[in-house]
Write a structure and sequence with these properties.
Number of helices: 13
Bound molecules: glycyl-adenosine-5'-phosphate
Largest sheet: 7 strands, mixed
Helix content: 25-40%
Strand order of the largest sheet: 3-14-15-21-18-17-16
Strand content: 25-35%
Shape: globular
């Protein structure tokens, strides 16, 4: 069984560095020091993301008769999110470090034990400050560390900002033994403020005449794509004539003012979700939740995440979202630990009922056959697009030792991305850029394949180096036009090219006329 606690920070560092170096993912506003929790996808990253979204859409909307799509607005009416419970309850407990002012998620602080040093204040000559402060020292740490930290804390209240904290006299030092406390910052031992609820939604003002106090001018950036599906349920039902069970799918941006964005794109403040609300009869909810779980696991396998690295957590009572009667989290072994990729939740008829109640408009479904009227229940597979891209990049990254044609061993970096996800499907090389016929044929192949897939033409450097550059960005196929293609070595090989496979590095001769159907089969 896989070790769910296993982490590999060195591997993660290499992945983050490759993502920047090769144009997959950049820090947003890096030029100005970076916008925390926001990321920009570069030329290759945007292709990976599009391939993932296109495949998800094809599998879940285009290839199914029972699911239709929606593209709702990001700006969301206050009343929608009040009804859904987000305005009142979409929050995380948060506390601040009294010394560094860092903001921490109170429920994610590791419990610590040790000796707490308490102070009532500090003085310097005539100047005094009276404030309670404390520092936690773990076993083996010197008591002077507590005093140094306390002096740094009190120095910030002194009018002389260049004063050395060493000159401060600490007041009322006492100690206490603490077991499994979460009241101190694990980074520096400083006391934290009491936890407060912090709403995670981004609020904004709408309209030219908007004023801070006008509740009608308030809108939110949606914290999940789901709510527009619920509020448009009746319109979709009336205009598409779907019959329960049926689903509405949506891919789009969501925004959460996460207290601690971290692990590269894993926890961001702006991210994309791929969600389905699958409406059903009340008695079918639990069965469909199990069915959707299996469906989603097989989806991940089909894009290149191995089953043994996917784990299912049956979220226990008390830990599920307020609307859910059953939730499975699909988790993946990232290099920073086993973490959630997707939630498959049975949301009952909570959301539709709430919107019916708050809007005062009927959202019931009438079953023509049984003549029954009811509010449909819903099963929601909710995947994170950015998290899935990250999982795919983490899984694909590989380094291996290979021996070159001169017998020298070198490290080959290769992104073993599934061909349907790879940003470039095929790279096309003339063996020699000075050979006009090779260049012409390469350009013809580029043009033919380019109408069906993303391809890349490269004529610079030795062909071995060109292969390596493509390996590093996950291109599954390289096509080389050489002297055989021109029929100069063996007339039988005229009109064929070398097709080189990224993972095995094996090469085969393929007729130019067979390239397109062959590649289309491989990347579908
Ligand atoms: N509509 C249900 C819902 O939003 P969720 O578990 O809060 O449920 C669903 O989010 C998925 O969205 C998560 O499994 C994750 O993949 C993605 N997600 C949530 N918060 C995220 C964040 N801050 N950064 C990146 N992805 C996030």
């Amino acid at each position: 069984m896989a070790d769910k606690e296993y982490t590999d920070p060195e591997r993660m560092e290499k992945i983050v560095s490759l993502c920047k170096r090769r144009g997959f993912i950049y820090q947003s506003a890096e030029l100005y020091g970076g916008l925390n929790g926001c990321w920009d996808y570069g030329p290759l990253g945007v292709e990976v993301k599009r391939n993932l979204k296109d495949y998800w859409w094809r599998r879940n909307v285009q290839e199914r008769e029972d699911i239709v799509g929606l593209d709702g607005s990001i700006l969301t009416h206050q009343a929608v999110l009040t009804a859904s419970g987000h305005v009142g309850g979409f929050s995380d407990p948060m506390c601040d470090c009294l010394l560094s002012k860092a903001r921490l998620r109170a429920d994610q602080i590791e419990p610590q034990s040790g000796t707490a040093y308490h102070y009532s204040g500090a003085s310097e000559g005539e100047w005094t400050v009276e404030r309670r402060f404390a520092v936690l020292l773990r076993e083996g740490q010197n008591e002077n560390k507590a005093r140094k930290t306390a002096r740094q804390y009190y120095a910030q209240f002194h009018h002389n900002k260049s004063l050395s904290p060493k000159t401060l006299e600490l007041q009322g030092e006492t100690t206490s033994q603490e077991e499994n406390t979460t009241s101190f910052n694990p980074e520096n031992g400083s006391l934290l403020t009491e936890a407060r609820e912090f709403n995670l939604m981004f609020k904004t003002q709408m309209g030219a005449s908007s004023s801070e106090d006008d509740p009608n001018a308030v809108a939110y950036l949606r914290p999940e794509t789901a709510q527009s599906i619920f509020t448009q349920f009746k319109n979709v039902l009336d205009t598409s004539r779907m019959k329960v069970p049926f689903g509405i799918a949506q891919i789009g941006k969501a925004f959460r003012n996460e207290i601690n964005p971290r692990n590269f794109t894993f926890r961001s403040r702006e991210f994309e979700q791929m969600e389905i609300e699958y409406f059903c009869r009340p008695g079918d909810g639990l069965r469909l939740t199990d069915e959707w779980l299996e469906n989603r696991l097989s989806f991940y396998e089909d894009i290149g995440l191995p089953r043994e690295k996917l784990h299912v957590l049956d979220v226990p009572d008390g830990e599920r979202a307020h609307y859910s009667e059953k939730t499975y989290d699909i988790e993946f072994d990232f290099p920073f630990g086993c973490q959630e990729l997707e939630g498959v939740a049975y949301r009952t008829n909570y959301d539709l009922s709430k919107h019916q109640e708050h809007s005062g408009k009927p959202i019931e479904y009438f079953d023509e056959t049984t003549k029954e009227k009811f509010i449909p229940h819903v099963v929601e597979p909710s995947a994170g697009c950015d998290r899935t891209v990250l999982a795919l990049l983490c899984e694909a990254f590989d380094e291996e030792d290979v021996v070159d044609t001169k017998g020298k061993t070198e490290t080959r970096t290769v992104m073993r991305l599934n061909p349907r996800i790879a940003p470039i499907k095929a790279a096309i090389f003339p063996l020699l850029k000075k050979n006009e016929d090779q260049v012409r044929i390469s350009r013809e192949i580029q043009e033919e394949l380019g109408s069906f897939m993303h391809v890349f033409y490269d004529e610079t450097g030795a062909v071995g180096r060109r292969y390596r550059r493509q390996d590093e960005v996950g291109t599954p196929f390289c096509i080389t036009v050489d002297f055989e293609t021109l029929g100069e070595e063996d007339p039988e090989l005229k009109g064929t090219v070398t097709l080189r496979h990224r993972d095995s590095m094996e090469q085969e001769r393929v007729a130019i006329a067979d390239l397109l159907p062959r590649l289309l089969r491989e990347i579908r």
